[in-house]
Amino acid sequence: MLAFLSLPGRAGQGDELRREPLEIRSASGSHRFDVEIADTPQARSYGLMHRQHLAADAGMLFDFKEDREVAFWMKNTLISLDMLFIDRTGRIAHIASDTVPLSEELVPSRAVVRFVLEVPGGTSAALGIAPGDMATSATIKAATPD
């Protein structure tokens, strides 16, 4: 179980999170996001908690550094999120849409994944993003097997 706590752009101890562009290619087109990278245990545990706003083209990419099933919760998360569970190749395996703010109910990946992308709630439906679509960024490319 993972808990999130964060100030905008911070890993929780005053460290700036690295940012990079991320693109999702879907049947509806190409969708670009500016994402913060949560690739340390501390950054992953703080996530997007306590934020009151997330821009429509922003998000957070969680890199677990290994392939596994994961589960998230929304405790102390004030805004609804879409959670896109992504395998090491960049394929979206599952989407949990419009998660409930402040909920302690677990949101499972339902698949073995390497990454989770969190974007504002409703983004996936609004942009036509679906399981099977492909996400790419420098972090995802670095994990993709040759």
Order of helices and strands: EEHEEEEEEHEH
The largest sheet, given as strand count, sense and whether it forms a barrel, is: 7 strands, mixed
**Per DSSP, what share of the residues sits in E-state strands of 2 or more residues?**
35-45%
Q: Which class do the helix and strand fractions yield?
A: mainly beta
Number of helices: 3
State the helicity in percent bands.
10-25%
Count of beta strands: 9
State the distance separating the first and last CA atoms: 31 Å
Mean pLDDT: 90
What is the alpha-carbon Rg in Å?
Answer: 14 Å
| Bulk shape | globular
Q: Biggest sheet, strands in spatial order? A: 6-5-8-3-2-1-9
Low-confidence stretches: 1-14
Molecular structure report:
- The chain is mainly beta and 146 residues long.
- Helices cover 12% and strands 38% of the residues.
- It has 3 helices and 9 strands, in the order ββαββββββαβα.
- The protein has helices at 41-46, 123-127, 138-143, and strands spanning 19-26, 29-38, 58-68, 71-72, 81-86, 92-96, 107-108, 113-120, 134-137.
- The chain has a 7-stranded mixed beta sheet with strand order 6-5-8-3-2-1-9. Strands 4-7 form a two-stranded antiparallel sheet.
- A hairpin with a 5-residue loop joins strand 5 (81-86) and strand 6 (92-96).
- It is globular and about 40 Å long.
